[in-house]
Amino acid sequence: MKANVITGTGKASEVFKIIEMDRPSPKVDEVLVRVHYTSVNPADCRIRTIPNPGRSFPAILGYDVFGEVTAVGQQVIGLSPGDNIIASPSLFLPGANAEYVCIKSNMCLKVDELDPKIGAAIPLVGITAYEALFDRLKLKPSHTILIQAGAGGVGHIAIQLAKKTGSRVITTSSRTASLQYCRDVLKADHVINYKEENVAKKVLEITGQKGVDLILDTVGNDTFVSSLGCLRPAGHICTILPVHYDALTGYENLLNNRTISYEYMGMSASSGRHREILKKLVGLIQKNELAPLVSEVYPFDQIHKAHEAIETGHTQGKIVIKVM
Predict the structure, then answer these.
(1) Mind listing the pLDDT tens digit for each residue in 43-60?
(2) 10 Å Cβ neighbour count for 185?
């Protein structure tokens, strides 16, 4: 099979290469999937750029898939060759930037009448947004939540889920098109241009100096630290990226009489829950209550270009890759 692999860590233009590899065989609890579409997430870019002694090369990235089951392991129940599925392959195993990928069957959702591009766009960001909002932050209709980077992959799904819950949503962006998208399409209650306004000051103004109940940080590092000034006392912040939370920042918040619950998560929903969450998300999509945005579709041999686009930080929604 053909696979668009990375040969090491480095720039996208330098490390991607299409090579021939043996087609994998499914283990007893896996299915072999012929990949039709995958997508690119910031996680792909981090894996490509951050050295990891435990990762061997060549490595296959790609952590979303829409495809067709072509073979099943002996213990697989409920999936058969010919079924179309969506899934988010494990970040620790070969991904979907290839013609075929093996995935644990309990991570796959059989789908009918779903646009393949949408199917490839939703798994990773959808599971991440859902778990962050409902499992970690315990979002309720009475809450006011700040969702950082609302036009991004996780952000644009999180805003829609939060609005459907009945919560008041404040979000951030900077480009004119993204600001309009968050306001006019996603229907965020307040959209802050973080390049032109002090986000913490604006959030306090919006909330009558109380601060928000919850924050979903999809950016990390400096954005996480600056977000802390937006929280009410006893507020809860969940970030999907590693951060450097130094002693000075903690001391400043103590002086401000803020007790903050902080939680870092990767996509940590157990694989057994992937199917459950994806089923809920697809149900919302089919009822036109959730609209994942596919901003661009790149061909298989241009995955490096998709990575470069993601790294600008200016993409809306998801970038999808047509594999076969």
Answers:
(1) 999 999 998 888 899 999
(2) 15
Q: Locate all alpha helices (DSSP H) within 131-288, ordered by sequence.
A: 153-165, 176-180, 199-206, 222-227, 247-255, 271-286
Band (pLDDT 50/70/90 cuts) for residue 264 is low
Tokens standing for residue 169: 């949503």
Kindly state the tokens that stand for 210: 């109380």
Can you tell me the distance from the alpha carbon of 197 to that of 173, in angstroms, rounded to the nearest whole number? 11
**pTM score above 0.85:** yes
| H or E stretch at 1 | none
- d(CA 1, CA 300) in angstroms, rounded, equals 13
Dihedral class, residue 317 (left if φ above 0, else alpha if ψ from -120 to 50, else beta): left
CA 85 to CA 145: how far, in whole Å? 33
Residues sharing a CB contact under 8 Å with residue 182, sequence separation 6 or more, in sequence order: 150, 151, 156, 159, 171, 173, 188, 191
Using CA atoms, how far residue 2 sits from 84, 269, 299, in Å, is 20, 30, 13
For the chain, domains (ranges, CATH) are 2-124+291-322 (3.90.180.10), 137-262 (3.40.50.720)
pLDDT over 70, % of the chain = 91
Quick check: 143 and 214 in contact, CB under 8 A?
Answer: yes
